[in-house]
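To the team - NAP complex, inputs and output below.
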Amino acid sequence: MHTPDDNRYEKIKYNRCGRSGIQLPAISLGFWHNFGGVDVLENSRAMARHAFDLGITHFDLANNYGPPPGSAEETMGYILKNDLRGYRDELIISSKAGYGMWPGPYGDWGSRKFLVASLDQSLKRMGLDYVDIFYHHRPDPETPLEETMGALHDIVRSGKALYAGVSNYPAELTKNAEEIMRSMGMHILIHQPKYSMFERWVEDGLLTELREDGIGCIVFSPLAQGLLTDKYLEGIPADSRAAKPTGFLRPEQVTSEKIGKVRKLNEMAKARGQKLAQMALAWVLRHKEVTSAVIGASKVGQIDDAVKAATSPAFSPEELKKIDSILAGK
Ligand SMILES: NC(=O)c1ccc[n+]([C@@H]2O[C@H](COP(=O)([O-])OP(=O)(O)OC[C@H]3O[C@@H](n4cnc5c(N)ncnc54)[C@H](OP(=O)(O)O)[C@@H]3O)[C@@H](O)[C@H]2O)c1
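Output:
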């Protein structure tokens, strides 16, 4: 059993999640990579324990994280049982359903049938009675939104999740989803979109929608899966995500065009007295709508880097302009 650091709640900033009673740490830890059955369990355990010691109270999962799919939730279950037992009430644990999980027409997308069955499976794997947040993982173009939101609503009412979230929903669909939820007397707690210096779609209407409807925002892949760090400046290291056969970042995505920009951003970060990973995290957290940045990590030290980013100096207007011009290739 792990004895957490007594000072853990002084180490990180907590931000209110939209208009809700929940606060999330500015940095959350995601279990997409490095917590699966193919990974070294002792490393996954060490990262989760260290994160909790740093005040990271939120672990983000999904039914399909692994590989194999489902195994990251089993790792979470192992950690909860062996390392963090007794601390359930200090943790926000999320899961999701929306991507293909089992064969046939009921193991994918956004039907009530899929969401309810998938959450039951997730709870079993994690050994939990409830998750704190349950997300619909991606929009389903064919299932009526009323059905998907109705399922999230009923799941929350059943007590198997405390709050509902959506992920990867465009602004207009988010607005419609929230209207449906409100009509049932509920509210979407949080949205989980992809956002980084290399992926800025949320700036085009989503953040405004979230602010207007009081929905929190936790951004994923804020480091563009590791591209927005100093890791790939001299090629693809053997221990990086791009080099791993099970990584979602493929070597061909590490382009010379991107690395050219990363090199300039890295110089800027140095001038600010921080690592590029920290500058990239501070940059997504600069919006007041962004409650938390959910990072991935392969090593304990990367979590230390991230937590320091949450107390970075604010960006001057000149710095923000310079970042925009580097990203525009100027
Ligand atoms: N809702 C969705 O559809 C969705 C989709 C994707 C992800 N997510 C969530 O978002 C979480 C984070 O996604 P992500 O892992 O892509 O996030 P990320 O923070 O952009 O990338 C994490 C990776 O960057 C590298 N890294 C991190 N800190 C570093 C540092 N200080 N220096 C050098 N390299 C560093 C590590 O890769 P190395 O292995 O190379 O060290 C690490 O695994 C996931 O775990 C999941 O919870 C959600």
